[in-house]
Every structure is written in C-alpha cells, then in structure tokens.
Amino acid sequence: MRKQQLWKPLAASVVLALSASAHAKVSPEEAAKLGNELTCMGGIAAGNEAGTIPPFSGKWLGTPPGIEYTPNVGQHPVDPYPDDKPRLVINGQNWEEYRDNLTDGQIALFKRYPDTYQIPVYPGRRDFRYPDEICEIAKKNAVEAELIDGGMGFTGYMGPIPFPVPSGDNQAMQVLANHNYPYRAFTELTEVRDLANINTDGDITWGRTRNAALNVITLPDQIGKPVGEIMAYSDNSTLLPTRDKGKRTVSIEPMNFAQGQRLAWTYNPGTRRVRQLPEYGFDTPAAGTSGKMTIDQDRLMNGSPERYDWELKGKREIYVPANTYRVHEESVSYDDLLTANHPNPDYLRYELRRVWVLEGSLKDTHRHKFGKRVLFIDEDTWHGVMSDYYDTRGELVNHGFVNYYYAYDMNAWQAGTSFFQDLATGGYVAYNLFQDQDKGPILNAGGLSSDNFTPAALRRRAH
Fold first, then answer.
1. Tens digits of per-residue pLDDT, 144-169?
2. Do 82 and 323 touch, CB atoms closer than 8 A?
3. How far is the CA of 354 from the CAs of 25, 285, 314, 363, 431, in angstroms?
4. Given CA atoms 291, 297, 303, 307 in this order, what sign does their dihedral have?
5. Which helix (H) or strand (E) holds 419?
6. Quick check: pTM over 0.85?
7. Burial class (CB in 10 A: 0-12, 13-18, 19+), 139
8. Strand duo 308-321 + 372-378: pairing
9. Which phi and psi angles does 214 have, rounded to 5°?
10. H/E element holding 417?
11. Rounded Cα distance, 76 and 108, in Å
C-alpha cells in the first residue's frame, strides 16, 4: 500500500487548532535523576512517609529465581508472591476511613454493593525492572523528545515511553502519550480471548475473539530508532456471539493523529466482502461485548485524543490493582471469578500506589458517549490502571480497571483481564479473559509482519 492510501489528514480546522508545538525536553541534570532518585521510567524511587508504599527495588529482570516459566508459548502467569496475604480489606462498613485513597468509581461500588464489594489491599511490591537498553533510551527521550501538533504526535526514539519526566508546556498530553506508547510486547497472539457481559441477575452473555497484534515501536530492530509513522497493527476475529461469528477486522495505528488516522478494514461473512470502515475507535462498540464496552476503553483509553480537552490533576496515592498474578492463574475458573454484581474479590490484588490523575473533558465540537473520563496512571509503568467514566450530563456511569502483571516473556507489564462496572444499570463486563483456556497471551514469539494486516491478507484469510 502506498503512503497516500495509509494516511488521511484530519479536517483542516482540527489541524490548525493543533499546530502549536509543546516542548518537553529536560536538562541533562534532570535526566540524570532517572535510575537514581527516580526510577528509569520517572517514578519516585523512594517509598512514602507512612511506609505503605515501599521504595523501588528493581531486583528482578525477567523470571524471578525459583519460578518455573517457559516464555513465548502462552503459559499462564506464575505468582512470585504466593504467600502474600492482605494487610487490610476495605469493605462496605469501613470504606469511609480510606476515602482519600479511593476514586469516585470505587466509592460508588461500596455504596451500591455494601455487603459484597471489597478491595483486598496487599503489601506493596516494586521489584521488577525494565531492560537496561530501554532505560537508556528513556533517558535519551527525556532530553530530546517533544510534543508536536498540539500533542497529537511527538518526536523521540522508539521503545520506551517518550516523556519519563513530564515538564514544560502541556504536561497532560505528555502523560497521555506515555500511557498510549509504553514499552510492551512486539508481537501478541491470543488464540482465544473470552468476554463476559454479566447481567444484574448474574446471567452471562458470552463473547469470544481471536487476536493478533504487531507493535512496531517495540520491534527489536526498531528500538532506539527515531519515531516513524506507524505505531501498531492489529487483527481481531469474532468467534462469539454466533450472530457475529466470522467477522474480522484489521487496523493500522498511526504515531501522529494530526498527520494520520486509525485505518481499519472489516470482513462481513454475510456479504463475503471486505470494506474499509469510515471510522474505527472512539465509542464504537467493542467486538463481542454486546455494546457494553467501547473500542477506546481497551486499556482504558486508546486511539486519538482529539475529542477531549486533557488536564493533568497531579498525583495521588490510590488503591489500584497491582501484581495481579492470582486472577490470571490457570486454576481460576470463570464460575468462581465472575460472581454477580462484581468480580470475586478473593482473586483480586490491590496495592497503594502513586498514580498520575489525568482528566479528559469532551469538547463541545465532538461527540462521545462519555462526557468525561478520569484516568489513573501508575507512576512506575505509565499504564492506566483504573478509570472513571461520566456521561454527557456529568453522571458517573462506569468504573474500569485493568489487572496488569509483569510478563516474564517481555520484561515489562502486560494488560491482563479488565473489568468495567456499569454504575448506571448494574452488572459489568469482563474483558480479555483467558483463565479457563489452555493458553494465555503468546508474547514476543515473533512470526508477524505488516503483510499480515493488509486488506488483501484479510480477503485471503476470510474466504
């Protein structure tokens, strides 16, 4: 495909509005703090004064000693902390004591389900680190990377996040860029990914997909090179519900949304035709979720940030999911995990963490089902771990959280099962389930190229 076929410019009015650059470079002296008083990704290395957040140790790179794990084959995660016990359990009777460390969504769940909703809080663990090569490039990004086109793109080097030390103008967009472009698997294959829509009576409507992703920015031969035009490719096949079986979509993600847009093509088994989608992302329903989850809720927020005005609210200490190995173990059954009203708290693990708070408010000139979204982004990893969503009237309607774990296959954090609580009508969606499957995500096994994600490839595979 020629370049002009891949990239379609945004409307002229949007480009003009986003034409200003925002500098984010820091001094060599500031960058030298990375790996010292700051982690190599910019988190505060020290713990907090209360001792409830530990100092960063970074003692492990890859599989910890004593863990039996075969990388790159889809083995389920193995918990390096099997003997840890909750140091406290927040419930419907005591949650007000911990209000300062909770989000609006968590408080709403305590009020709605006071007898069953719980947050088990475990000892904090900050033991895993990134590869040295990635840390060195992050330090290089700190002194050279900068936002362009009003934050819709950035210059810098591929591999790690671009702004380990947010500074200067438009820090909100720097933090969002870190969330959108983290160091993660360069290939990801999921043979079966289950999705469950749990109704208020506990009945479940199932979805199922098969997925493949190629992340260009973390390909081994691309790491450390200047940022290019394409971020990633993806391929999503629907297996359930039956009415959508056989539907398949490939998409291409740009690095700069002011210079290009997400492009997608879909195969419809009813018509046996491949067509380009006019729009793919934003609040389009995600495949297999019965319309209960939007495409841009995957990883809590993804795709173009253009529809929102973003504001950085600083840092807070919040109880968030962390080191969530147990919920992904092969021994966990869907029957036990997917209880009525909310997932079974016995399988969840929360820790007190410092998180960046990033708020997006819908622009008057754009539409989206969410009028406001508040992201809570872990300072050690730059992954969004929780989000509260509000409708266009300002009512809190959804609380989402992603259970991340350090994947030994790639020496970085992997987005595991996500839960999205419907605070308007009850029930919830469980997304990216693989506990009951023989294999989990197959990470960094390779074997994919851009040729696997073209309309022509989609036609060949669909027939």
1. 999 999 999 999 999 999 999 999 98
2. no
3. 23, 31, 10, 29, 25
4. positive
5. strand 412-422
6. yes
7. buried
8. unpaired
9. -125, 110
10. strand 412-422
11. 32
